[in-house]
Amino acid sequence: MSMSSTVEECLREAGVEYEVVRHPHSYTSAHTAAVAHIPGDRLAKTIMLEDEQGYVGAVLPSTHHLRLSRLWSQTGRHLVLAKESELRDVFKDCEVGAIPAVCTAYGVRTLMDESLTTVPDVYFEAGDHEALVHLRTDQFMRLMEQAEKAHFSKPGKSTSE
């Protein structure tokens, strides 16, 4: 598998400049950053959450912890981690565990941690475990226009992978 068709269409429609970075197969964001030789704070990971209203994608740097209590207060929703097995129906053209940052392209409400605005460039999963999309931050912000921006993470070794 390569880049998901949904991600490819989203990038084309947004008219952003990007490159695809190939890397050895990896399963966690920390491992992906290491094998792709990129700084972990520039790798945007997506953590899928859910409640009775549906799914929410939280996009944050791979080196950060998700602060659920912040999301609860900002959204007014008691979100919990979604089960990966249930996400196959939503992200049909992606491998399990390789969810791209552009959840809005899949019809999923997306929250982006504002710390991603402070790095010079951003990488995110292309839909499989061997490719990343790489963009300058201004291009990433253009791509993430529909995402809600908030502060809901803190730096530290990630435990939500």
Please give a quick description of this structure:
By secondary structure, the protein is α/β, with parallel strands linked by helices. It has four helices and ten strands.
Record field, number of beta strands: 10
User: Main sheet, how many strands, which sense, barrel?
Assistant: 8 strands, mixed
Question: What would you call the shape?
Answer: globular
N-to-C series of helices and strands = HEHEEEHEEEEHEE
Oligomer state of the chains in this structure: single chain
Count of alpha and pi helical runs: 4
On the 0 to 100 scale, the average pLDDT is: 93
Please estimate the helix content.
Answer: 10-25%
Beta content: 25-35%
Contiguous runs where pLDDT drops below 50 for at least 5 residues: none
Structural class: alpha/beta
Radius of gyration: 14 Å
- For the termini, the CA-CA separation is 21 Å
